[in-house]
Amino acid sequence: MHLMRGAIRTYAWGSRTAIAEFTGREVPTNHPEAELWLGAHPADPAFLETGTGEVSSLLDVVRNDPDGQLGATVRSRFGDSLPFLVKVLAADEPLSLQAHPSSSQAVEGFAREERLGVPLNSPVRNYRDRSHKPELLVALESFDALAGFRPVTRTIELLQAFAVSELDPYMQLLVGQPDADGLRALFTTWITAPQPDLDVLVPAVLDGAINYLRSGATEFESEAKAVLELGERYPGDAGVLAAMLLNLLHLEPGQALYMPAGNLHSYLRGVGVEVMANSDNVLRGGLTPKHVDVAELLRVLDFTPATADTLQPAVDQDGFELTYRAPAGEFSVSVLVLDGEELGHEVDAPSPHDGPQILLCAQGSAIVRAKTDTLTLERGAAAWVSADDGPIRLVAETPTRLFRATVGI
Predict the structure, then answer these.
(1) Of 243, 268, 288, at which residue does a domain stop?
(2) Is the peptide bond before 356 cis (omega within 30 degrees of 0)?
(3) How far is CA 374 from the centre of its chain?
(4) Last residue in a domain, options 191, 225, 243
(5) Does residue 137 share a domain with residue 19?
(6) One domain for residues 235 and 269
(7) pLDDT digits over 183-233, tens only?
(8) How far is CA 372 from the centre of its chain?
(9) How many domains is the chain built from?
(10) Does residue 382 share a domain with residue 364?
(11) What residues make up the domain containing 335?
């Protein structure tokens, strides 16, 4: 077991305070910090600290001792690579509108771009590995996101409420076909529209949102404000129109959002812990200066309407462990809540795992004991527990919350 030193990624949409405060560093930072990576992804592996002050890349540690670090069971399923990646994500501005491929789509897309000779580090590369990228985000603070296509009848009501005459012919695509095919037709029409058409339609939608808010109506108040914010940041962007087709979700701390393959989404603002398959495959559809491949995005999107209830996973409880129910074999996410009668006593972590674990302290402080070592994890600190070093025992004197990422069943 070792303390982990995560890799910080700086993107324009990040925060100059959130991740630094979480990890106990000085604020504000020189650059916006968007993500703290805790894993063995080749692009930015975390480093492990030892008692002697030495550090080693987790990627190298796993490569040099896959059986001891991952365990035989995990190796038989996923080979010699850690199958999941943990991130702390902090968004002060909206992320791009995006989706992730399925396993078969990722394998085919990666092979195709390899045949075409597109460099892995090329800005126009879509597939940087052969893996799908299901992901689960748990809010640490209030978190807002666009995710999944809203049920069609509800979207028609929103478009009617904005009362934009320029939207009428497009709305008929949904009225005449109120299902996934209608959503595909409308989304495709908007995402492939010529820029002169967008330069007329997007401002008209923004005017409609302003008029809606001025009218005092409240049913779609949050949606109108979100459209206005996106339109201000990305004028003339088709993603502003696409945002009207998606569920606008608000998460309170502890609530989660699961993103399967093909789910169109954009994180708008907030701080959360994100656990995903160890992949960097992203297909973007707008709200970004980065590469947008419309044809490839349309190939992977799932237009099946979804509701907030279907996007937010149920939670199972085993003692003081709360596990988010997500159908991803690469990872499982839970929170160990040490409070009440657990305080002051050494307790066994529920549900022992025979694979590796990453622990991240989100609140309080806990002493963690494994077979070979004992560590103290305070807020913002993380630990790597290898397969041959579990199970773990915990002691906390004050209310403590530890995120626990393991390999899924």
Answers:
(1) 243
(2) no
(3) 31
(4) 243
(5) yes
(6) no
(7) 999 999 999 999 999 999 999 999 999 999 999 999 999 999 999 999 999
(8) 33
(9) 3
(10) yes
(11) 320-406
Is 5 one of the annotated active-site residues of the chain? no
pTM, two decimals, is 0.94
User: What pLDDT, in 10s, does the model give residues 240-265?
Assistant: 999 999 999 999 999 999 999 999 99
Catalytic residue among 125, 150, 284, 404: 284
**Whether 38 contacts 9, CB under 8 Å:** no
Q: pLDDT tens for residues 28-65?
A: 999 999 999 999 999 899 999 977 777 899 999 999 99
The reply to whether 333 and 382 lie within a common domain is yes
Sign of CA pseudo-dihedral 247, 253, 256, 262: positive
**Residue 409 pLDDT > 90:** no
Q: Which two tokens stand for residue 397?
A: 């004197």
Query: Do 153 and 183 form a contact (C-beta atoms < 8 A)?
Result: no
Pair 270, 289 in one domain: yes
Residues 101 and 14 in one domain: yes
Q: Are residues 43 and 64 in the same domain?
A: yes
- Decide if 15 contacts 32 (C-beta within 8 A): yes
- Give the pLDDT confidence of 305-364 residue by residue, as tens digits: 998 888 999 999 999 999 999 999 999 999 999 999 999 999 999 977 789 999 999 999
**Kind of pairing, strands 7-9 and 35-38?**
antiparallel
The CATH number linked to 272 is 2.60.120.10
- Are both 277 and 133 inside the same structural domain? yes
